[in-house]
């Protein structure tokens, strides 16, 4: 399986800056001979920049992702974006359940579950984020929390042949901190998540349709320790904002 690297640009860039950064990345990928056949690179800009970013990325082998979607396709839902609209704009992936949305917008596991179903229906690949807060960790409920998030997001979701789902373990307390968790911890947690998914959808579908990535202060120095074995890739925030740094990060796992 190809390594998967997801760049989450959050709300860090204006549309103009998104285009400038995307152009720079494409130049660097060419210069450094990064072959998109060997790695799945997914750029997730803000909603507003998606159509223009899609134009730039067309036929370049680099994929586009949205940072969220709504669970309905149409209707009186002011401010929301439908999964098929995102697909039409050029997105193939969608990040769902990011801790910043769970925290700032009170997104619940039930809402995330509905979004996953809607995303799959629109042929978007969901990137489901799960992870414990520092407080939950201190209380010793980390695994319980993650198993619960995975269960509530995926229970009753039918994964049809050809559909994919990516689950990102993102310990909330290390996101943006500059200090990742120990790689052994991330590998152990990927196993815990995989076991839960096997229980929910069965062994062969899990192996066929799901992948696990790690997110939380990944950079060019530590990525190699994470992206190996059961962890197929990384969700990268801060270290994806600077094109030179992001390209170094990608090169260090090729
Ligand atoms: C994130 O927000 O998903 C993330 C992984 O951010 P960072 O790489 O900055 O920790």
Describe it.
- It is built from eleven helices and eight strands.
- The protein is an alpha/beta fold.
- The chain has one domain: TIM Barrel, CATH 3.20.20.
- Strand 2, helix 2 and strand 3 form a beta-alpha-beta unit.
- The longest helix is centred in the C-terminal third of the chain and has 19 residues.
- It starts with a strand and ends with a helix.
- Phosphoenolpyruvate binds next to strand 8.
Task: Briefly characterize the structure.
It is built from 11 helices and 8 strands.
Distance between the termini: 13 Å
**Gyration radius from CA atoms, angstroms:** 17 Å
Count of helical stretches: 11
Shape estimate: globular
Spatial strand arrangement across the major sheet: 1-2-3-4-5-6-7-8
- Mean pLDDT, as a whole number? 97
Helix fraction by DSSP (H/I, runs of at least 4): 40-55%
